[in-house]
Specification:
The protein has a single domain, classed as 4-Layer Sandwich (Deoxyribonuclease I, Chain A), CATH 3.60.10.10. By secondary structure, the chain is an alpha+beta fold. It is globular. Strands 3-5-2-1-14-13 form a six-stranded mixed sheet, covered by helices on one side. The chain has a six-stranded mixed sheet with strand order 6-8-9-10-12-11, covered by helices on one side. The chain contains five helices and 14 strands.
Length: 332
């Protein structure tokens, strides 16, 4: 009897061991697969603004009479992964115009704004950079672009030169502030404002103190467009202003987000794009094209020049228009 009980217990123990070993060799049931919660790249529709946290566009406004507040960085509490900013996926067409519309200079005709509107209607640019304009020229040119791109969130910005004699804004003959401007088919970045300033280096014999202007716009993805009109009286002053623009303003703008492209349309008054004065102030690998004279369109290395043409403004100003197509460097 005792022997039978011993055998029964032994059989039960062996049965348990076999069950345990069988469980160890079975295949576990796989868990439910869930895609990781990734943050998509900051791709923006051409008519949709993005939050200003996407592009922390901080600029040192040395010498600026009224610096704008920097765009704050993204709040850590809202961020799960760093936002990736990629080069634009489509070409960008930039129209640079110097309209000589102060009413003071010998090149003034009073007809350049109307001719510029005609060119905008014909060429349908994405961005327009403007030199030697009166502030009230800007709404008419903004309206011209709205007429050819009716569904776009078109924006503009203006920065006046400063009058050394008065410390106030420099003025056109009609009393309007005189200076530079930009127009964009895309809206500005949500919550942001244009950044601008007066150069620390100026020609003390010229009452007009020169300015620069930059605006972040919600292209696809965000880019920054800038313009300036450098001193024409002394090459060394214009060169110092150019150095400051690229070496300080744009360099500090790109420091927090070095892949955010910057485009500049301007009258640099330094000769053609191959002149020593221009070459010495432009960053290496910049894309650039000139009008055969002093106007240039320059872009950071995310872009290459894929097309350019001079546009006859029919004697309404002493400069041609310069229309440049910039394409992402990866699409060369």
């Amino acid at each position: 009897m005792t022997d039978r009980r011993y055998r029964a217990v032994l059989a039960a123990v062996i049965g348990c061991l076999v069950g345990v070993l069988a469980g160890c060799t079975s295949t576990p049931t796989p868990p439910n697969n869930v895609a990781p919660n990734t943050v998509a790249p900051n791709t923006v529709a051409s008519n949709t603004a993005v939050p200003n946290t996407a592009v922390p566009n901080t600029i040192a406004l040395h010498g600026a009479p009224s610096p704008a507040d920097p765009i704050p960085a993204a709040s850590p509490s809202n961020a799960t992964e760093p936002t990736t900013i990629e080069p634009p996926v489509a070409p960008v067409r930039v129209l640079q115009l110097n309209l000589c519309n102060s009413g003071i200079a010998a090149c003034y005709t009073g007809r350049s704004t109307a001719q510029a509107a005609t060119v905008i209607h014909a060429q349908n640019p994405d961005l327009i950079t403007l030199n030697e304009i009166c502030q009230d020229d800007l709404p008419a040119l903004q309206q011209a672009l709205a007429e050819v791109i009716p569904d776009a969130g078109i924006v503009s910005a203006f920065e006046g030169a400063r009058d050394r004699r008065t410390g106030d804004v420099y003025r056109c003959r009609n009393g309007q502030p005189y200076g530079i401007g930009v127009i964009s088919r895309w809206p500005s970045l949500l919550g942001s404002a244009a950044n601008s300033g007066i150069y620390p280096s100026q020609d003390t014999d010229d009452p007009e103190e020169r300015a620069w202007l930059c605006l972040g716009v919600a292209a696809s993805p965000a880019i920054t467009v800038c313009t300036t009109h450098l001193a024409y009286t002394k090459v060394e002053v214009a060169a110092a202003q150019c150095d400051y623009l690229f070496g300080t303003v744009i360099a500090e703008m790109r420091e927090p987000e070095p892949v955010v492209p910057v485009l500049l349309g301007a009258d640099l008054n330094l000769g053609t794009g191959d002149s020593a004065s221009v070459m010495s102030c432009l960053p290496a690998a910049s894309a650039r094209v000139d009008d055969g004279g002093v106007q240039l369109v320059v872009a950071t290395p995310e872009f290459v020049v894929s097309g350019a043409q001079r546009i006859d403004l029919r004697g309404t100003t002493d400069h041609p228009g310069l229309l440049v197509t910039l394409s992402p460097a990866a699409q060369r």
